[in-house]
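Checklist before submission:
- one chain only
- standard amino acids only
- sequence pasted in full

Submission:
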Amino acid sequence: MMDYFQHPDILASFIFHFMKELIVGEVRTKPKSVILKHTTGGSMTETNTLNILKKAIILEQRGHAFYKKVAEQAENEEVKSFFESMAQEEIIHLKVLSAQFKAFNKGGLFEPRTFKEAQNSSLPQKVLNPEIMKKIASAGFEASAISAAIAMEQRAVTIYADQADAADDPEEKKLYKWLSSWERDHLNMLMEIDQALLDQVWGDNNFWPM
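Returned file contents:
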């Protein structure tokens, strides 16, 4: 039996595929199930709305667990801090969604909230620097985690944007637009990191045409 800890590149690949299936597997099997446009006042409407909120909460829980796990595995403190910050942002989403679930479950209405642009992620300004990218690229696990995180954030953006379009309740629409915008910030940042990693690996291995 292979000792994966003696082969970190194989271990990183294994963890990447395992975490990707854990995070996006359930949603991928039913990509349209969360787009449920509701009508006024029926019990089926309330059930659908609560189910959508449950799916969103589970998605954020998985995101938090993923980023936390990667942070625990990271050896470099700056890289660890980056993934810890991502995990903490998922907690913010969890709190908002949980509050809305409780409000809707109790009274059939979303809780009025004001989501300001200032509340959106500030991580791109904090973490995008060549030194951290270099450290992520040098660690197979963290580099693979970026790819898995992109898949996760892409799914979150799609789910929240679609539900924002489908919602009739203005507070529900506002909630999912805010979440979609925040997750898109994450996605854009991760894709920028991924491109930088690609450029670095390309350059380090002298793949440029002669």
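Reviewer check: The chain has seven helices and no strands.
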